[in-house]
Every structure is written in C-alpha cells, then in structure tokens.
Amino acid sequence: MTKQVLDFSLGQYEYIALCDLLKLTGVVDSGGQAKVLITExxxxxxxxxxxRKTAKIRANECIELDGMVINVRE
Length: 74
Hints:
The chain is α+β, with helices and mostly antiparallel strands. It is built from 2 helices and 7 strands, in the order ββααβββββ.
C-alpha cells in the first residue's frame, strides 16, 4: 500500500491545532470528523498515537492517518 504524502506549510505561524490541520489539508470533511478520529486514536503524530484534538503541531512534525502522511514545514 502506497502512502499519499502531503506537505503543509505553517507560513508565518508557529503551530496549528491538529484538528485544524486535518481539516485544512482536506484529509477530513469537517472539524467534527477530525475530532472523532483524533479521540478514537486513529491519528499518529511522529509515530505515536495523538488523542488531543488541539495538540499544537509544529514544523518538522509528521501526522499520519490511514495511509495519508502530512509533513508539516515552516
């Protein structure tokens, strides 16, 4: 199974909330769907399960969900 890789740039911001990142990258259809997936343990942050909906995702972190990888950049 090949993973789909997305790059996300923080631009001028220091971090982005995990639920917002999933929504802005189009990985999920809504913020509500993002929150459910996060609380149920489907999201990996740097290889570890992340269950905090508003975890601060910073540059050089990697978020994974069901074959999708989001590389967060500055």
